[in-house]
Amino acid sequence: MIRRGRWILLSVAALLPVGLVIGWVYLGDIVLAMAAPGVPFDPADTPPPPDYGQPASWSARPETADAADAEVEGVAIAADPAVDVFYLHPTSFLGAAWNARVDDATVNEATDAGSTRIQASAFNGCCRVFAPRYRQANMTAFTTASADGAAAIGLAGDDAIAAFRHYLEHDNHGRPFILAAHSQGAFVGLRLLREVIAPGPLRGQLVAAYLIGGPITHEALGDLPVCASAEQTGCVVAFNARGPDYVGGIEFVENPPPPPDAPPHRRVCVNPLTWRADEAPARGGLGAVFWDSSGAKPRPRPEFVGARCEAGTLRVELSGTVPRDFMSRLLDHALGAGNYHAIEYGLFWLDLRANAAARAKAFLASQG
């Protein structure tokens, strides 16, 4: 019996490294499999909708001290900006339900520290920041097109629209605004842009839309222009950053998908070093910014990136290493080597900040 137990232990010990290797190789597939809801989307069994009249339903607002007020060394926050930014955060929900609850403390903490702090803060030099929480869709809704996933994304979009309407009614007062988003936020931001902002007079208040890290296509934008210069207003910036050797990993798809007989959709790519949608290469960058868990002010890292648009993808080359903690490295590996999705704002943080300020200035000047 003792010998049998020893044999079992030795067998487990021998198989453990094999299991770890397999788990590492297929980490992305494992993450998606674990996150996948095991039941169909049920519209009668969704989390309660947010009440945007309550401060708890917002990750950031201008009257509160919050993650959007995060400071970067040597960079000043605007004291009394004349423009607003409405920011839609990326996925911070890792559960297996179709949609997250907005009162989930763990999800909200991840949103504030991992999204609002490192992304929405890029706009605190030009704008008052409004960042709603919403019932995020499960991450698998964005990697595999399905009716259930589309319904979950639809619920998230309903919340984004409700939050924006609350902002219009209670906070906007005719002020110009920027729409900013990343990843899942870009999905629901595109819907907000197309259904609420673009069709009517609100389009005249739109400074620009930064819909980064989503499958934003020229076809989906319709008559909304892609930004072609650094100071153009009323236009859309979008890009998906990948390294030159990236060959595959977790990628987002349009959900719902385009009709099967439709011509292939063309991804939008605006180079955040030149603010043009052409394929001209550029190198430099005003400053990449990366936070850590210490709470210290990060220092911008200028001249950190080279980038060029190539067939709808922003090909990025780095001139240094990106500081990443253990969990961030796991995320990077799951996304695929050279997939810079998680740091698309960080790589161009100071460029995004300066550009938002430039477009806001140009917009205000055009209004007389």
Describe the structure.
The structure is a single chain. The chain has nine helices and ten strands. It has helices at 2-25, 27-35, 105-116, 147-172, 184-197, 218-221, 326-335, 344-347, 349-366, and strands spanning 58-60, 83-88, 127-132, 177-182, 206-212, 235-237, 241-242, 282-284, 305-310, 313-318. A six-stranded mixed beta sheet has the order 1-3-2-4-5-6, sandwiched between helices. It has a four-stranded mixed beta sheet with strand order 7-10-9-8, with no helix packed on it. The longest helix is centred in the middle third of the chain and has 26 residues, at 147-172. It is globular and about 50 Å long. The model is unreliable at 1-26 (pLDDT under 50).
Amount of helix: 25-40%
State the major sheet: 6 strands, mixed
The secondary-structure class comes to alpha/beta
The global form is globular
Give the topology string: H per helix, E per strand.
HHEEHEHEHEHEEEEEHHH
Q: Which regions have little confidence, pLDDT < 50, spanning 5+ residues? A: 1-26
**Average residue pLDDT:** 90
Radius of gyration: 21 Å
Looking across the biggest beta sheet, what order are the strands in? 1-3-2-4-5-6
Number of domains: 1
* Annotation, overall tally of beta strands: 10
Individual helix count: 9
User: Which range does the strand content fall in?
Assistant: 5-15%
- Termini gap: 89 Å
Keywords: Membrane, Transmembrane, Transmembrane helix
InterPro entries: AB_hydrolase_fold (IPR029058), DUF3089 (IPR021440)
Transmembrane segments: 7-27
Pfam families: DUF3089
